[in-house]
Write a structure and sequence with these properties.
mainly alpha; 247 residues; Serum Albumin, Chain A, Domain 1; two-stranded antiparallel ribbon; Helix Hairpins; elongated
Length: 247
């Protein structure tokens, strides 16, 4: 009787452990598929940015035949181009005496509208990326912008691989071309990669950026380990330490 009861309990315990393992694998699979969405989204954003910049260059060359638009803001440029091509008067913009045919103006308007649609899509994808990184990497997303977080994850090949990297490697992720030139041709060694985009590094005087990059990379390594393994939220403390860092 006692043995039968023990066997029954052992069977239940085995089933419980199997269910736990199955649940863990399910979470890992879901996490992995979500991580793929992070890498796909950051790559798409990079492509959109290139297309938008190329379209801006082409349209600005075309627009110079008709009007000088005094703005370096790409979205404002597309909006102003659309208005001018539609026959609207825009303050601060002088239209040349060259008379373009209606068909030509329609082409300019069409390109401007395309640029605005692409910018709108880029903004949507940026919001989606922010939501993803907040959900998957609460520590990293607390101390880094979503774009840098995703770039690091994509380049490392996943948060676990990022977490296993030394901070010195994290510091140079995104600077592979410069590092290759340094090793092959003896050019100046890079001091930072993607993390240069962070104000903690970019806002520093040039001579302090390398040191700032090392400090930030160290915090990123700790945040990545927490997101990948312990799941503890330590980012608030890391952020406070960054804010108090002196050089």
């Amino acid at each position: 009787m006692k043995k039968a009861k023990e066997a029954k309990l052992a069977k239940k315990e085995k089933l419980r452990l199997e269910l736990i393992e199955k649940a863990k694998k399910g979470v890992e699979k879901a996490f992995s598929s979500k991580e793929v969405m992070v890498t796909q989204t950051i790559n798409l954003l990079s492509d959109l940015e290139k297309i938008i910049n190329l379209l801006y260059m082409r349209l600005s060359n075309w627009e110079q035949l008709y009007a000088e638009i005094p703005t370096k803001n790409i979205k404002n440029f597309f909006e102003t181009s659309k208005k001018i091509a539609s026959g609207e008067e825009v303050k601060g913009v002088e239209v040349s005496s060259i008379n373009l045919e209606k068909e030509d103006l329609e082409e300019i308007k069409s390109l401007a509208e395309l640029g605005l649609r692409l910018i709108e899509e880029k903004e949507r994808k940026e919001k989606y990326l922010q939501k993803l990184v907040d959900e998957l990497y609460p520590n990293l997303s607390y101390i880094l912008p979503a774009k840098i977080t995703a770039q690091l994850i994509e380049k490392a090949g996943g948060v676990e691989k990022l977490a296993l990297m030394p901070s010195s490697t994290i510091q140079l992720l995104g600077a592979e071309k410069a590092l290759f030139k340094h090793l092959k041709f003896g050019t100046k060694a890079p001091k930072h990669g993607f993390i240069f985009q962070h104000p903690f590094v970019s806002s520093k005087p040039k001579e302090l950026r390398g040191r700032a990059a090392r400090v930030l990379a160290n915090k990123i390594a700790l945040a990545a380990r927490a997101d990948a393994f312990s799941k503890n939220f330590i980012a608030k403390k890391l952020k406070e330490e960054l804010d108090k860092a002196k050089f």
